[in-house]
Amino acid sequence: MTDHATQPQPPDLRPPALARALRAIGFAGPARAWREDVLAEYGQALSRWYLDAAKSNSQTGDWRRINATPDVVVASDARLARERAAYLVASTEYGHRAVESMVDATIGAGIRTQMAVRWSRDEATAVRMNNEAEDAKARWAEVAFLKPAMHLFDGQNLWLKSTMQDGQAFVYRRYIRNRKVRGLRGLRPAPALCYEVIPTSRLTDVMVHPVAGHEVVGGIEYDADGEAVAYHIADDGYNYKTYRLPAEHVLHNFRVDRPGQRQGITWLAPVVQSLFMLRDIVEYKLIQYKVQSALCVLVSQDTGPGIVPGLPTPLGQSQTAAAGAQRQFLQAGMIHNVGPGRVTAFQPSPSGDLDPLSRLCLRGIGVGFGLSYERLSGDYTQVSFAGGRLTENAFKDRVDVVHAWYCRGLERPLHQDWVDYAMAVGDIPAPPAKADPYAATFTRPRWRRGVNPVQEVQAAILAIDNGLSNHYQELAEAGYDATEVLEGASRIKGFARKDLQLAIAKALDLDPEPAAPAEPGADQ
């Protein structure tokens, strides 16, 4: 048995502790670059430890097989369902549409951060601090993800899409020293803090090396209390090489559907079979239409060496098959001489139209995934006004639940990581004592009032007038930044007031600015 005291141990330093230690240093000049180097050194130390820990093997590490437990069975089933769901999303129109529609409605063009800092009683100062913090995070968001390098909004889209398709998503937090990103003018410096989305397929329980007393189930290492302590990830190019990533640096989020669940199951699991059946029905029906549209003839008489006089044999093909059947092809179909007594009839087409059956299948698939038939199929030809309104309201409630779940699982942890990092490098000032460090809310996607926009806006106005809502709440639910909208409206009102004053003065033939009264005794 290996002595684990000699095994490589992770550094004791943690990013939040490092951030607090560096807040006492100045926020300008060489000190800022030095802080970047220290943070990057910490990230390098973690990476070196990961590599050292991965050098163990089944001979030198405390590796043991895991007995067949219910979790193993569930993990095996989840893996099979995940592979089928990935195939459906990639190769079928309705599987792709189901995931894309939900992601577009939840993420939209990107979930932005709205700071809610209230350290100063002066409203103008508070607004300025919020705007500066939002601008700093927007600059970091440009290069927040790597492998591949992408914007924070693209990472949001990828994370939620992976969660729906695979049932779970893994985001690995990294600190990279002297990080560079490619721009229009070549490589340029980038913040050390970044994230990497790890594919679920790279989780492995083969050749893993857990700490003594721990077990690995489905690539996740658990301690005696059942808490996840590490994730075993296969190398991107060599499956036999694994990395042990501590759980405190991995965001693992999935929808919990039962007590004791350890890994997620694809959101498409309830509709996988229906999607496969619908795909087969449509495919076979299209093939049948294709055969019926082509010229296809069966000949059962023995007409000699040729089937139809004057019809040539296609180049490179034998006129007589091994069983004696003779074949000749036309451009649109086939003539097949099956010989006397061997003719068979075509299978008759199923009675009824394919469209009602497709709608029935799509309604069931939509119910299982949380989408309406119209959203899933893109068919709005038979929806009524009342039905469309009810459908959109129900879908909006569904999106609100998914959006809140998403923000709890990814946006808030990422925001807290960025706050610690930004304060450490001086991008934002440290909060005063006992102050909430950069509280924030997260925007919702723009919700178009498309069913009956006039009545919906009037209902919002009545709710505000009667104290049931406020401008901020209504604008936030519609996906707008309430502060920006109200500030813009205030500026427009100011411009309109000046234009009105100028128009009145011109109509009355008056000077826009009244002349100052003459001094007493001045010449008249």
Give an account of the 3D structure.
The protein is an alpha+beta fold and 524 residues long. The protein has a domain of 79 residues. 45% of the residues lie in helices and 12% in strands.
List the helices and strands and how they pair.
Blueprint: H1 15-22, H2 30-54, H3 70-91, H4 93-107, E1 113-115, H5 123-141, H6 152-166, E2 168-175, E3 180-183, E4 186-189, E5 193-198, E6 215-217, E7 220-222, E8 228-234, E9 242-246, E10 250-254, H7 272-293, E11 296-299, E12 326-329, E13 334-337, H8 354-369, H9 373-377, H10 385-425, E14 440-442, H11 453-465, H12 471-477, H13 482-507
Parallel strand pairs: 11-13
Antiparallel strand pairs: 1-14, 2-5, 2-10, 3-4, 6-7, 7-8, 8-9, 12-13
Helix pairs in contact: 1-10, 3-4, 4-6, 4-10, 7-8
- Would you tell me the structural class of the helices and strands? alpha+beta
Rounded to the nearest angstrom, the radius of gyration is: 33 Å
Quaternary class: single chain
Q: How would you sum up the major sheet?
A: 4 strands, antiparallel
End-to-end Cα distance, whole Å, is: 112 Å
**SS summary, helix count:** 13
Helix content: 40-55%
* β-strand amount: 5-15%
Low-confidence stretches: 1-17, 49-74
Global outline: globular
Total strands:
14
Spatial sequence of strands, sheet with the most strands = 6-7-8-9
Average pLDDT over all residues: 73
Q: What is the succession of H and E elements? A: HHHHEHHEEEEEEEEEHEEEHHHEHHH
Summary, kept brief:
The chain has a domain at 273-351. Helices cover 45% and strands 12% of the residues. The chain has helices spanning 15-22, 30-54, 70-91, 93-107, 123-141, 152-166, 272-293, 354-369, 373-377, 385-425, 453-465, 471-477, 482-507, and strands at 113-115, 168-175, 180-183, 186-189, 193-198, 215-217, 220-222, 228-234, 242-246, 250-254, 296-299, 326-329, 334-337, 440-442.
